[in-house]
Amino acid sequence: MGLCDRMSCWRRRCSSSSGAFMAGVGALLLGLGLAQSVPPQAECRAVPVQQNLTEYQFQNTTEEVDSGFMSAFVQSFLGTVQPNPFPKDLIVEVVQDLNEVLANRDLVREALVYQVGFLVCAAIGVLYIVLMPVVGLLVACCRCCGNCGGRMYQKQSSSVHCRRRALYWSAFATTTVILAGNICMFKSNEALKKTVDQAAEGLNATFDNIQTFLAAVPEELNHVVNESYNTIQEVTRNLEAIGPQLGAEIQQEFREILEPALSSVRLLDEDTENTSRQVEDLSSSLAELQSSVDRFQANVTAVRDDINQTLSKPDCTGCDQLQPELQKLDALDTTVSVPSLKELQSAMDEVRKINLSSKAKEAEDFFNSIPQRVSNDTSGIVQNSKKLLENIEEQISKIADDVPLSTLNNVSDTLVGVHTDIKKLLPQLERGEHIRWGVCVALCCLVLLVVVCNLLGLVFGPLGLKPKADPTKRSGTADCGGIFLMMSAGFSFLFSWLFMILVLVLFLLGGNVYTLVCRPWNSGELLKLMDTPGFIPGLNLSQSLGVKSQISISEIYRSCEQNKPLWATLHLDELVDLNDLLNVTKYTDRIQSYFDDADIVLSTITLLSPESKEQLSGFSSKADDFDPVDLTSEINNVSSINLNTTADRLDRLADLQTNDKIKKELQGQARDLRQIQADLESSLLPQMKNVNASGARLQSSAKKINGSVGEVLSKVGAAQDFLDTNRTQIVKTESQKFVDCQMGYFIVYADWANSTITLHLGRCGLVADAVDYVESFLCLNLVESLNAFWFSLGWCMIFFVPSIIFSIKLAKYYRRMKYSDVFEEDLNMHHIPRAHIKSS
Question: Rounded CA gap, 384 and 588, in Å?
Answer without folding.
Answer: 16
